[in-house]
């Protein structure tokens, strides 16, 4: 935002030389504007602008005086100068990229174009995830980006961190595990709470005085010796603020609930206890929150019921159970355990749709013809009695072998699900089937093996009927009053075309065409690409890149559509044992079915935002636990050369996904000593300055593991053709 003048001002010195005062004024203004809020005297300005010739130095004071007269610059009584520009003030969330700078992501994206770059010195002790108030500088910085300065930390996102204790003779520091925490935390020896050198601990920030380089904290929990399985999992739980145990009060409430289902309660519901019903879940699951019923109707059509555990019958509003369920908002599935939303008495007992037991449910029941077209549907409360509990593998085996319990009904449902699925994709749904890594662990949590979870027809069968129920519940509420009634929707915005163009470039570098003309052709192009890459080394990389190019799904009371599923309206209704938004949907659905009035949306919207945040936290923790096991697995794996694919390139390193294990590691540019490599960001590649050797996204390479760091959950690699083979380092703990 510079000031322009059409008149060219010059001044002469005694020797007749000229200096361009307009140009000098512009330089001074740009400097002061870019350092808004700071004051400088003329000598400091000369030094900062690196003015070396005597003529220009002599022109600085007169130019400053004229700028003061014009009101463009302010001067205080001590002859210090500062910008008079009006800055913009915004609130945003800190994304602490590295130790040198952070980006502030505006809470209101319409107030400013893009994220704001803030140098570490101007962060005012803000940490990653903090909500801050930022002063935006009037002019862009040398990087060409909008820059600013943090004025205050409005709200800390966290004040507890997990890290490893480093004790010296006079003091102690905690080195945080969290990659975006770039400061060690000073701890007085009296505040170590018995922690010893090298142990993992939880540390709480207690003070961070102005001028101090590092914050001060106190150890609140000693987790144990770094590197041990239980300690590392507890470290991840503490890092993401996950609870270690269930509070006593909600546990007591859960234990006090009667198992008895009264005749009065059954009379309020449709009775499906004599209808064939079964559950299909993972072999190790205990919380069965959905069941499917089936019967052939006299008119030749089929009745398919999706029955969901009636959690809100047991978890009442304003109870400790309700409060804790809301706080957790979701069950979290780490690599070796589940951190449940509800206490075990409910999740694995009262609410779980166990076989040979009467259970209370909320249902969406469909009447469909032979082509799986929905002719009628009914939504309401039911009571069921499951005839059989299937593991996915057992149900699939019955379909494949055409034998076993209820194989004919399973086969018919599978045929129906395929028809529904085919229509969904024809209507514009996107087929994302991401690679899911699973570990075989011994009794101490040590990874013995790694395998890729296979998705078979039976998984897709359950998925289709759950999607169908969620869709019809959302449409039922929306159509009831043209979307004016408050409800919890699961929405997914259309993708940004610029991000898709970037992804298209990635796909082409992997040798795949991904051409899109407009939003209407995206799903067709994506589905073709997903089909083309099935079983290929680049499958996981491209699937992850595609997902990152999409908008994030979220919970909201706004009745928007779901792009990925191609549904006009969609909700989450089918997993109330493990998701709080499903409980919210059940409560609102019950209210409307009983003729109640729509509640105020604001309170429900806040719950939606909270649930979306908790969902992200759970996903991040789950990924961290998988990454930990991947690092540990590679630290124990055979010392050999692995085939891999270049999954990412930055100025500091090459990310490679090892094809055999789906583990990702990095080759640091500083360790690539065969040449000096320049980063070509436009083409996402590194180019050797002497050899012109190119390393490009999608390249198939051979690598070897040189180091693993469990604390940081990183794997260091080197190219296998490196003549100077380094000795392999085992896991740093």
Automatic annotation (TrEMBL):
Indicate the principal place this protein occupies in or around the cell. Answer: cytoplasm
Q: Which UniProt keywords apply?
A: Cytoplasm, Exonuclease, Hydrolase, Nuclease, RNA-binding
Top enzyme category = hydrolase
Corresponding gene?
Answer: rnr
Which part of the chain is the S1 motif domain?
639-720
Task: State which Enzyme Commission number(s) the record gives.
Answer: 3.1.13.1
Question: Which reaction is catalysed here?
Answer: Exonucleolytic cleavage in the 3'- to 5'-direction to yield nucleoside 5'-phosphates
Decide whether keyword tRNA processing is in the record.
no
Molecular function (GO) terms listed? exoribonuclease II activity; RNA binding
Function comment: 3'-5' exoribonuclease that releases 5'-nucleoside monophosphates and is involved in maturation of structured RNAs.
Q: How is this protein named in the record?
A: Ribonuclease R
Q: Where in the cell is it found?
A: Cytoplasm
Q: Which InterPro entries match?
A: CSD, CSD2, NA-bd_OB-fold, RNase_II/R, RNase_II/R_CS, RNase_II/RNase_R, RNase_R, RNR_Ribonuclease
- S-adenosyl-L-methionine found in the keyword field: no
Give a GO cellular-component term: cytosol
Taxonomic source organism: Algoriphagus antarcticus
Family affiliation: Belongs to the RNR ribonuclease family. RNase R subfamily.
């Amino acid at each position: 935002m510079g000031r322009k003048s059409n008149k060219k001002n010059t001044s002469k010195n005694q020797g007749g030389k000229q200096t361009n005062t307009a140009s000098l004024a512009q330089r001074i203004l740009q400097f002061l504007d870019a350092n808004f809020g700071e004051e400088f005297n003329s000598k400091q300005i000369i030094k900062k602008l690196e003015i070396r010739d005597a003529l220009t130095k002599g022109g600085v004071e007169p130019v400053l005086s004229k700028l003061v007269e014009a009101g463009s610059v302010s001067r205080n009584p001590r002859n210090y100068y500062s910008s008079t520009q009006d800055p913009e003030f915004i609130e945003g969330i800190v994304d602490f990229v590295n130790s040198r700078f952070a980006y502030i992501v505006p809470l209101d994206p319409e107030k400013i174009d893009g994220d704001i770059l803030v140098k570490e010195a101007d962060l005012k002790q803000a940490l990653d995830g903090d909500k801050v108030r930022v002063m935006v500088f009037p002019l862009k910085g040398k990087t060409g980006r909008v820059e600013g300065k943090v004025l205050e930390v409005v709200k800390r996102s966290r004040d507890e961190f997990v890290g490893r204790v480093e004790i010296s003779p006079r003091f102690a520091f905690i080195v945080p595990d969290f990659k975006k925490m770039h400061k060690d935390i000073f701890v007085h020896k009296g505040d170590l709470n018995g922690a010893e050198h090298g142990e993992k601990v939880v540390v709480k920030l207690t003070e961070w005085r102005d001028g101090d380089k590092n914050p001060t904290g106190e150890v609140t929990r000693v987790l144990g010796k770094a590197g041990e399985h239980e300690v590392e999992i507890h470290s991840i739980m503490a890092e993401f603020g996950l609870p270690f145990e269930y509070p006593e009060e909600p546990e007591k409430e859960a234990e006090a609930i009667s198992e008895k289902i009264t005749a009065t309660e059954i009379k309020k519901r449709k009775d499906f206890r004599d209808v064939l019903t079964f559950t299909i879940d993972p072999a190790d699951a205990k919380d069965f929150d959905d069941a499917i019923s089936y019967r052939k109707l006299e008119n030749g059509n089929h009745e398919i019921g999706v029955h969901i555990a009636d959690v809100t019958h047991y978890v009442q509003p304003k109870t400790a159970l309700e409060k804790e369920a809301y706080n957790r908002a979701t069950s979290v599935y780490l690599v070796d355990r589940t951190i449940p939303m509800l206490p075990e008495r409910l999740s694995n007992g009262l609410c779980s749709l166990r076989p040979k037991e009467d259970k209370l449910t909320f249902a969406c029941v469909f009447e469909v013809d032979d082509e799986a077209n929905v002719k009628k549907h009914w939504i309401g409360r039911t009571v069921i009695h499951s005839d059989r509990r299937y593991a996915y593998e057992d149900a699939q085996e019955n379909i494949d072998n055409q034998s076993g319990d209820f194989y004919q009904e399973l086969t018919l449902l599978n045929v129906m699900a395929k028809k529904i699925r085919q229509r969904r994709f024809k209507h514009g749904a996107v087929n994302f089937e991401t690679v899911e890594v699973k570990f075989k662990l011994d009794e101490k949590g040590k990874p013995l093996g790694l395998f890729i979870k296979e998705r078979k027809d039976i998984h897709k069968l359950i998925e289709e009927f759950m999607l169908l129920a969620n869709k019809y519940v959302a449409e039922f509420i929306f159509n009831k009053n043209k979307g004016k009634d408050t409800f919890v929707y699961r929405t997914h915005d259309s993708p940004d075309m610029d991000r898709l163009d970037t992804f298209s470039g990635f796909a082409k570098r992997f040798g795949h065409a991904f051409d899109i003309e407009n939003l209407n052709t995206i799903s067709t192009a994506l589905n073709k690409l997903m089909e083309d890459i099935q079983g290929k080394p680049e499958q996981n990389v491209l699937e992850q890149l595609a997902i990152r190019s999409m908008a994030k799904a979220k919970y909201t009371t706004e009745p928007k559509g779901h792009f990925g599923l191609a549904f006009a309206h969609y909700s989450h209704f089918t997993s109330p044992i493990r998701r709080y938004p499903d409980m919210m949907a059940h409560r609102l659905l019950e209210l409307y079915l009983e003729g109640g009035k729509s509640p105020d949306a604001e309170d429900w919207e806040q719950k939606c935002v909270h649930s979306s945040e908790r969902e992200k936290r759970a996903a991040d923790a789950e990924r961290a636990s998988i990454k930990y096991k991947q690092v540990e697995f590679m630290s124990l794996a055979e010392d050999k050369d692995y085939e891999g694919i270049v999954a990412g390139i930055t100025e500091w390193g090459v990310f490679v996904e090892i094809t055999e294990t789906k583990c990702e590691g990095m080759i640091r540019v500083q360790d690539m000593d065969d040449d000096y490599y320049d980063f070509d960001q436009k083409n996402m590649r590194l180019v050797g300055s002497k050899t012109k050797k190119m390393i490009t996204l999608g390249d198939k390479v051979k690598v070897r593991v040189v180091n693993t760091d469990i604390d940081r959950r990183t794997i260091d690699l080197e190219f296998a053709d490196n003549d100077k083979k380094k000795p392999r380092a085992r896991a740093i703990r």
